[in-house]
Amino acid sequence: MKDYLKNTRFIFVIFHLVLGLLLLNQGFAKIYAVLIVCFGFIHILKSKNSRQQAVLWSAYLAGSDVLFRMSKGMIFHELHKYVIAAYLILALIVEKDKKAISPIFIFYILLLLIGIAFSEIPYPESIRKAIAFNLSGPISLGLISLYFYKRSISIKKILEILFFLGLPSIAMMSLLYFKTPDIRDIVFGGVANFAASGGFGPNQVSTVLGVGAFALAVHILFKRNYTTFLIFDVILLIYIFYRNLLTFSRGGFLTAVFALVFFATFFIYSKRNRLKSALKYIGIVCFFGLALWLYTSDVTGGMIDNRYSNRNASGIKKEDVTSGRTDIFDSELEGLFQNPIFGMGVGSGKYKRIEETGIVIASHNEMSRLLGEHGTIGILILLILFVVPIFNAMGQPPYAIAFLGAFFIFWFLTINHSAMRVSFPGFIYGLSLIRITLKDENTLHR
User: Fold this and answer.
1) Sign of the torsion formed by the C-alpha atoms of 396, 402, 404 and 409
2) Is the link from the previous residue into 124 a cis peptide, with omega within 30 of 0?
3) What is the dihedral of CA 281, 287, 291, 294, to 10 degrees?
4) Half-sphere exposure of residue 446, counting CA atoms within 13 Å on the CB side?
5) Strand partners, 153
6) Alpha carbon separation from 445 to 50, 95, 440 (Å, rounded)
7) Of the candidates 86, 95, 42, 92, which has an alpha carbon nearest to the alpha carbon of residue 61?
8) Which terminal CB of the chain, N or C, has fewer other CB atoms within 10 Å?
9) Is this structure's pTM higher than 0.85?
10) How many CB atoms lie within 10 A of CB 25?
């Protein structure tokens, strides 16, 4: 046991299991959140980003965004988007091996800013808040991409990044355990469940839990222990999927599943004994997946079956599978048709909907928001976001495409069900722009 306690990863995981309990105290949550941000800046400055410390700190912040919002530890909601961008820009400045900056993402940021000139935010609403709410995520993505674009990162470092990205989801899992009522006492229906999500947005909670599941599963596939003990990794993975199902948010859960299936497909394809590996993993997933689903169905009174078959609590089929998102999507497309060149203007879509329908709801889909609020310029922005990662992945080996494709899927599906509310989509998109190497970058340097 003494040897295991020396293992840094094991200590980190145990700490985050305890952290979930400590974050029930709002005062502690605020102090911890501020200290993390400050230590990150100090570490990056002192180390001069010699071992990509900025990426590890950014990964931790991208994974902890929702956790700190849930525990009311955030000073303001968009903080992590700004800090991650600042970490990576600072790293570009202080690191010894200077990297050339690609103009493509500077052009992307400039295109985003044009939409501000056409914003129509009614008085007394704050135009600053409207712009920050809608553009902080996309601009953060652009700044993050300046750092990552064509940067060589080894698989060993990627696993390290995933480790830090997944740690906050372990704390969240622990927080949910202590914060939510007994599962048998929760009333489940045919919609996303706030009680099982710790009183916070089920979509965002589900997204973070999905990230944690992905990080754990990738470590298991690589036969690298996340926590030192394989059995502990497997138990954590099953429990985190279970808590994810209980949120009843399909977006976050299915995003993780699709990303993981893509990763596993290319990962297995890159191995010599593909058929044997595929049969082994399919068998394991089917066994544990079915057992988990049956257990979850039992504790939710069968409501999880209704939720994923698009039925309400009475078992009646719903007409709309998107929970109203298609109406928002249609209203933003209408904005594009009415203002084809420059769109409605940043932040204006929400107020147009209030004016026309009386319903107060922000966009849940970053693609349609870009089209509706930025017009034809939004189409150009989307082209950049799609084409650059695809060209970057071309020519890289299957094991690299496994990671790059999974990162891209995470970004694409997340912005399609919860826009860019949190910092995670911008960070994971940045990772889809890297060049993946087998050897550690420090070994290559020597």
Assistant:
1) positive
2) yes
3) 100
4) 4
5) 436
6) 11, 14, 9
7) 86
8) N
9) yes
10) 14
